[in-house]
Amino acid sequence: MWMWFAKLGSPRWFYEISTKWLPWLASAMCILMIVGIVWALLFLPPDYQQSFTTRILVIHVAVAGTSLAFFPLMAVAGTITLVWKMKLADMVAKHAAPLGAWFSFVTLATGSLWGSVMWGTWWEWTDARLVSMLFQFFLLLSVVALRSAIEDPDKSAKACALLSIVGCINVVIIKYSVEWWNVLHQPSSPLSTSNGSANGPEFWMATGVMILAVYLFFIVSLTLATRNEILQRERRSQWVQEIVRTS
Amino acid sequence: MKIHRKKKLGVILFVAAGLSATVGLTLFALGQNMNMFYTPSQVAMGEVETGRRFRIGGMVKEGSFISESDSLKVRFETTDFVHAVPIEYEGILPDLFREGQGIVAEGSVDSRGVFSASKVLAKHDENYMSQEVKAALDAADALKSNNSLQSISER
Amino acid sequence: MLEAIQFSSLREFFEMGGYAFNVWSVYAIFSIFVLVNMLLPILRKEKIIKELKRRASFEKAETNSVREP
User: Fold this and answer.
1) Which of 2.40.30.10, 3.40.1000.10, 2.30.130.110, 2.40.50.140 is the CATH number of B36-123?
2) Does A48 touch chain B (CB under 8 A)?
3) B21 touching A (Cβ < 8 Å)
């Protein structure tokens, strides 16, 4: 039963399997990204209140939703690092942190650009949803800083793993902030399957395509970064030298 | 799983559980302070002292909006369908502002019981729909209330 | 679901119902975000391979020079 687990932890196995999968994932990402953007920009009907600003929300919702995946991912990877000392888990965690900071920043920026015209404000310090998302951005930056602050790679991996596990609490707060407290931010929309009601497929289909595209982008970008890390850390091994020679 | 790994995993789970309990209790203790605004009912019940700056959130009452033609001064009432609080504001309103829409206003209640706002924000709900769908839903609603009126008058 | 294109002219499309700045800024930010996070790791890989190649040839030359005398 532990065989696949041990195999998964081998950087070489990961590098080889991702070589096979990457072209497929990347092309699926490109297609979905183009379909999602064209659909949102050209075909999404204007909302009865917000007019064309729903085009902002298609991007905002997709990026914001994906940004919540980073801390759980880093926590799982961190736990594996702490308990089983698997090299690959730490490599993934190391590159997830800066990418997650990007995701959080884009979530905040796109949200601000919508809020400035719809709510009448760029930023509200009293809104629990907005502040907890800003906190996630700072937490991810501090994980990045922590990684470079501690020189011993083993120790820095352990410290980052702990911070990642703790950071998961904030994800729960972000998710439920709109239900627990009175805030300006709207709660997530219930999806409707009929075309003649609020939140019908005409609205969420484009967002659905965009969410898939952004998730794929997250996976592809993180895999590319992890592969670079593998090449560097395993540069003395026979199989990496073989790759270098043939490329 | 080897015994020392089981132990390590146990410690991690224990620390994580402890931390979430701490954070949960802190948030619970903060409670009301984490809320961005008071509701009109809370204000009407006197939960906020007069003169204190705070935020109030509710719906703009239908038919209550009055604007002066020569200035940016507006007057409207905000309601949670139990109590209504009158609001005075001078300035530019957000694009989403209209009757029946949720708003959050920042300011304080004066001696007349009027909330004079220095900032008005529009709140959007979780419903998105096109103009056509909105028109169709409104028509259906109108039909429904017409029918119920008819059935009342027939009786 | 896929209804007609929502604009009757190119100008209308760019205007986005008066929200041109906000809508187009969001799509610009998003495009930069995606491009940077795809291109950076790809360029970095090329750099790493180049560096490892240079090192390999350097080590090869060193072992050769040790053997020669």
Assistant:
1) 2.40.50.140
2) yes
3) no
